[in-house]
Amino acid sequence: MEDDLAAENQGGAAEKWLTAEEVAGRLNIKRETVYAYVSRGRLASRRSDDGRGSVFDPLDVERLAARVRRSGKPGPGTPESAITLIQDGRLSYRGIDARRLAAERSFEDTAELLWGADRNRGHDWEAGPDADLVRESVGGLLPLAPLPIDQLRIIASLIGAIEPPGAEGSADVVAASARRMLMTMIAALPQHSKPVAWTDDAGAGKLVPFLWSRLCARAPSVSELRALSTAMVVGADHDLASATMVVRTAARAGVDPGGIIRLGLDVGSGPVKGAAGFAIETFLRDVAKPSNVESALVRRLRQGEPVPGFGHVMYPDGDPRAAELLDRLREADVDPERLATVEEVIARQMRRGLPPPNAGFSLSALSYATDMIPGAGEVIFVLSRTAGWIAHAIEEYGSDPLPRLNSVYVGQRPAA
Fold first, then answer.
1. pLDDT category, 323, cuts 50, 70, 90?
2. How far does the chain reach from its first CA to its final CA, in angstroms?
3. Structural contact between residues 159 and 185, judged by C-beta atoms closer than 8 angstroms
4. Range of 161-175, 200-214, 353-367 with top mean pLDDT
5. Of all helices (H) and strands (E), which one includes residue 90?
6. CA 198 vs CA 62, 225, 400: distances in Å
7. What number is the average pLDDT over the span 313-331?
8. Of 146-155, 194-203, 346-355, 369-378, which gets the smallest average pLDDT?
9. What is the mean pLDDT of residues 114-124?
10. Which residues contact residue 275 at a Cβ distance below 8 angstroms, ignoring those fewer than 6 apart?
């Protein structure tokens, strides 16, 4: 809210059917292989509306992709990593189930685990001294009422310019910089409420109530803080999502942590991902109450605009991140009618045969049910995923430089 928000928010049986060329691109196979899968019964197809070829159900394609990824061997050049495992419908960080971490540990603890830093040292999760200057500068650069993700992009750029580049890529040095940058990014966002102290919970930490004050105009309950903490923990990493692959490549080329975060933000909050997450939030806000859900869904479907946020290629049987966050949300002290609206959307979509909701939907549900500012879900996603981007960068720092590659030229040849 395996790709990041793109894969999380694009699933759904109502998505347009795919051409053979699009299927080949998604599965990274030849067009002929697509039809071979059809002949073997591994992929279903039907004639296109114009009768010029076959089209394929995107959910069917995603299920096939998931089976191939579970059974296939890693391709050439696939990096080795000890950070995150996605297997058998579970997500784990360094061998610990992410749902267990969400129940027992703070986001700060989870980030330290991912980074592999020395956990016996005193860890300073404090904003840098330039947070106020950054916030004032951002306010003069953007038009009225920008989305918070736009503010965050500029904030990250300014902080990256201020933060001194790291002289080494050790876990302890990079983690110290990452803590400071992450807290400064939050501090530089406009404040909507006063931060509260949260110390009476096993998973309590400083960052989550601090972030809440930038996303919601009222004080949170403890149960709402637990829900936000859960979202941050289960969203902290997702193995080799597209943004993670970019930051790993950048780290191997020597890009410092500030640049890593900026790259992750740009790739991890692109127009497809952000538009999908924001579309879910907007839909929930427009529906407003459970009795409006069915008519709102029908209108969107007839307009060719399905509600994204259901199904994920890595979790054919259901996204565990969404399950954990929705469980916490159901326990939270949120507006009953807003929560009932979320539940009705899920129930109606499941009756239509869609797979269970994914992490993108659950993030939007959290934002809506707690009455956060519009666009809050995307901010939660990218800030939580910053922990994973830094972890993957640490893994790549010190590796041999990437080899110089040449493309396989397929264009017009020069004259003899």
1. very high
2. 53
3. yes
4. 353-367
5. strand 90-93
6. 41, 8, 43
7. 95
8. 194-203
9. 74
10. none
The CA distance from 11 to 308, in Å, is 6
For tokens 């904003």, the residue is 127
Q: Angle at CA 324, nearest 5°, toward 319 and 328?
A: 145
Q: At what angle do helices 107-115 and 376-396 cross, to 10 degrees?
A: 30
Crossing angle between the packed helical segments 359-369 and 376-396, to the nearest 10 degrees: 140
Structure tokens at 287: 């529906």
**CB-CB neighbours of 301 under 10 Å:** 13
Count of residues making up the chain = 416
Q: Of 209, 207, 187, which is closest to residue 196 (Cα–Cα)? A: 209
C-alpha neighbours within 13 Å on the C-beta side of residue 369: 31
Q: Are strands 96-97 and 18-19 parallel, antiparallel or unpaired?
A: unpaired
Instruction: Categorize the per-residue pLDDT at 413 as very low, low, confident or very high, splitting at 50, 70 and 90.
Output: confident
Residue 65 identity: A
CA-based R_g, the chain, Å: 22
Asked whether the beta carbons of 169 and 398 are under 8 A apart, the reply is yes
Tokens of 204: 């309590």
The pLDDT score that the predictor gives to residue 77 is 63
pLDDT of residue 236: 97
Residue 50 amino acid letter: D
Contacts of 51 (CB under 8 A, 6+ apart): none
Which residue intervals of 106-145 are DSSP H helices? 107-115, 131-139
| pLDDT class of 70 with cuts at 50, 70, 90 | low
Q: How many CB atoms lie within 10 A of CB 77?
A: 8
Cα dihedral 51, 44, 359, 91 sign: negative
Q: Identify any residues that bridge with 56 across adjacent strands, giving them in sequence order.
A: 18
Say what the pTM is.
0.80
Give the model's pLDDT for residue 187. 93
**149 touches 275 (CB < 8 A):** no
Cβ(31)–Cβ(21) below 8 Å: yes
| Count of CA atoms in the C-beta half-sphere (13 A) of 383 | 35
What pLDDT, on a 0 to 100 scale, did the predictor assign at position 275?
Answer: 56
Contacts with 177 (C-beta within 8 Å, 6 or more apart), sequence order: 163, 166, 257, 258
